[in-house]
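Handout for the seminar on molecular recognition.
Each group receives one record of this type.
Step one: identify the two inputs.
Step two: read the structure output and locate the region that could contact adenosine-5'-diphosphate.
Step three: write two sentences on what you found, then compare them with the reference statements printed after the record.
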Amino acid sequence: MSCRRGALIVLEGVDKAGKTTQCKKLVYALQKNGRAAEMMRFPDRTTQIGQLISSYLEKKNNLEDHTIHLLFSANRWELVPLMKKKLEQGITLVVDRYAFSGVAFTSAKPDFSLEWCKNPDVGLPKPDLVMFLQLNPSVAAERGEFGTERYETSAFQRSVQQRFEQLMKDPSVNWKVIDAARSIEVVHSDIKVLCENIINTSENLPIGELWK
Ligand code: ADP
Ligand code: 2DT
């Protein structure tokens, strides 16, 4: 007898858009409604590859730009067997950043095309829903200072935002843009409705392949 699968739900957006806050609230709300749900985040800094990525982000090591891009992708691929297993067990996965961040951040660097950046992630489990938390950089700035990690500057974040906008033109991905300038609770209730719907509509569908 086949069990209904969980949904693969991704939250994307620039720094301080509220991704982590909303992922946690969503998982809690789904669980409270009796749904099996778990949070994941990329990069997953706990694996060996993840530790290499983490020291790169903390500027403790320097890696060549193509190399770090491929490591971010490898960090997703190494988690794919676990993700598939959980989805097949009926667990909904709420993921803080995915391949879209991978492409948006690397392609914001000079001389990287969107196409080259997408390639290593082609064939990953395709999210049933990708919510983009849209936030104006000036509002993001009011949410506190940038940290000290790599990429945490407003000029770089503006380029990342432009790359996300290009990625969102792709109709093969189920994008939903969420106005993240509203209160945490208002954003949460929008997200919850979208997710309850997608969990119901994807439970009998096979897991898709990203960008294929
Ligand atoms: P991200 O994961 O996108 O970087 P976070 O969820 O860590 O963002 O939130 C960044 C900061 O902004 C945190 O201090 C958080 O409490 C605050 N924050 C998140 N959502 C909102 C919101 N809708 N309105 C105001 N502040 C918010
Ligand atoms: P946080 O852990 O604060 O989300 O920061 N990034 C992320 C990439 O450059 N490529 C990727 O594939 C992913 C998933 C975005 C993580 C930083 O790493 C960037 C910010």
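Reference statements: The mean pLDDT is 96. The chain has nine helices and five strands.
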